[in-house]
Design goal:
The structure is a single chain. The chain is α+β, with helices and mostly antiparallel strands. The chain folds into two domains: 3-103, Roll (Ubiquitin-like (UB roll)), CATH 3.10.20.30; 117-316, Nucleotide cyclase, GGDEF domain (Alpha-Beta Plaits, 2-Layer Sandwich), CATH 3.30.70.1230. Helix content is 36%, strand content 29%. Helix 5 runs antiparallel to helix 6 (185-212).
Length: 317
C-alpha cells in the first residue's frame, strides 16, 4: 500500500488508491484543515506535492475548476479530491484556524490566488530622484499633495499596461507584470516605465518647478525573471506581491540609474524580449550591490514609431 509523508508533521500514513489524501490524513490523526468538509468548495485542504506528483490522480472536474480560478500550479492539489497510487511527500499549506481564515480563497473579494507560486514576471521599480531634498524644501502639506498626484499617475501607468502595484517604498513603488501569465510582460513593464517618464517630464516636473522652484525627476528599472508570486492582506487591502532574487535585481537596476546618469535601465533578460520594439540609448556594464561580476544594463529612451501607432489605434478602437 502506498505511503504519504505529511510535512511539517513528519508523519507517514498508508493510503489505498480509492482513499483521498484528506481521508488518509484524518484517519492518521493529522489535523488537516477542511473548512467545507472535503467537498471542493474551499481551498483550505490544499497541499504542495514535493515528491511523487506522477503518483497522484489527475485533477477531476471540481478540482480543475478551483485550480483554474485560483491559479494553482500543478504541484498544488486539493487533498479532498486527490488519490495516490505510489509513495508521495506532501506539505500541508493550511495548518490551523488562523491560516484557514487567511487562505480560503473562495471568499468574496479575492482576485488572485494567494498560494505562493514561482512565475516568470517582469518587475518594475520607480524611485523619485532627490526625494529627501524635495521633502526638506517644500512645506509638508505640499509634499503630500505632490506625492498623491505622483502616485495616482504612476498607478495609472501600471494598470493601463496590465500590471499590478505590489508595494510603495515611500518615494517610489514596485509593480509586477505577467501575474496573469502574459506573453509580453517585459514589454508591458517597459511601456509602463515610458508612460511614467513621459508624465513626469510633461506634467509633474513643470508643475513642481513652477510652484516650488525645484526639480523633480524619477528613475525606472525593469528586470525579467523568476519570483515567488502571491497575495497578502485581505478584502480591499489584498495586494499581489513577489519575493526572490529577481526582485532584488530589479531594485538594484533602478538604483544604477544614479551612477550611470540615466533615467530608465533594463536587464539583458528584458532586452531579449523587447529588442526591436523600443529605442535604446547607452549600454553599460556595472556591478550590482550583493552580486558577483558585472551586469549588462541597457538604457531605454523611447518606443519605436510603429509600436506607438499600433498602440494609439488600439486605444481609439
Amino acid at each position: 500500500m502506498p505511503r504519504i509523508l505529511f510535512l511539517p508533521d513528519q508523519q507517514y500514513v498508508e493510503a489505498s488508491d480509492l482513499e483521498s489524501v484528506l481521508s488518509a490524513a484524518l484517519r492518521g490523526g493529522i489535523p488537516h484543515t477542511n473548512e467545507c468538509g472535503g467537498n471542493a468548495r474551499c481551498s483550505t485542504c490544499r497541499v504542495l506535492v514535493l515528491n511523487g506528483l506522477q503518483f497522484c490522480s489527475p485533477r477531476n472536474e471540481k478540482e480543475q475548476a478551483l485550480a483554474k480560478q485560483l491559479h494553482f500550479g500543478e504541484r498544488v492539489r486539493l487533498a479532498c479530491q486527490t488519490t495516490i497510487v505510489g509513495n508521495v511527500t506532501l506539505r500541508r499549506l493550511v495548518l490551523d484556524a488562523k491560516d484557514a481564515g487567511l487562505t480560503d480563497q473562495r471568499k468574496e473579494g479575492t482576485t488572485h490566488g494567494s498560494v505562493g507560486e514561482e512565475r516568470q514576471i517582469a518587475i518594475l521599480f520607480v524611485d523619485i530622484r532627490g526625494s529627501t531634498r524635495f521633502a526638506e524644501s517644500v512645506p509638508p502639506f505640499d509634499v503630500i499633495h505632490v506625492l498623491r498626484r505622483f502616485y495616482h499617475h504612476m498607478e495609472r501607468a501600471v494598470m493601463d499596461n496590465g500590471g499590478h502595484v505590489a508595494c510603495y517604498t515611500g518615494d517610489g513603488l514596485m509593480a509586477l507584470f505577467g501575474v496573469e501569465r502574459s506573453e509580453c510582460a517585459p514589454l508591458e513593464a517597459v511601456m509602463a516605465g515610458l508612460d511614467m517618464l513621459r508624465y513626469v517630464k510633461e506634467d509633474l516636473q513643470p508643475y513642481v518647478k513652477r510652484l516650488f522652484q525645484c526639480s523633480f525627476g524619477i528613475g525606472v528599472g525593469v528586470h525579467f525573471g523568476e519570483a515567488i508570486v502571491g497575495t497578502v492582506g485581505g478584502g480591499p487591502q489584498e495586494r499581489v506581491t513577489a519575493i526572490g532574487d529577481a526582485v532584488n535585481i530589479a531594485n538594484r537596476i533602478e538604483r544604477a540609474n544614479k551612477r550611470a546618469g540615466t533615467e530608465f535601465l533594463v536587464s539583458d533578460a528584458v532586452l531579449g524580449a523587447i529588442e526591436g520594439q523600443v529605442r535604446l540609448g547607452r549600454a553599460i556594464s556595472v556591478k550590482l550591490p550583493g552580486k558577483t561580476g558585472k551586469h549588462a544594463l541597457h538604457e531605454v529612451v523611447g518606443v519605436r514609431m510603429a509600436r506607438r501607432k499600433r498602440r494609439a489605434s488600439s486605444l481609439m478602437s
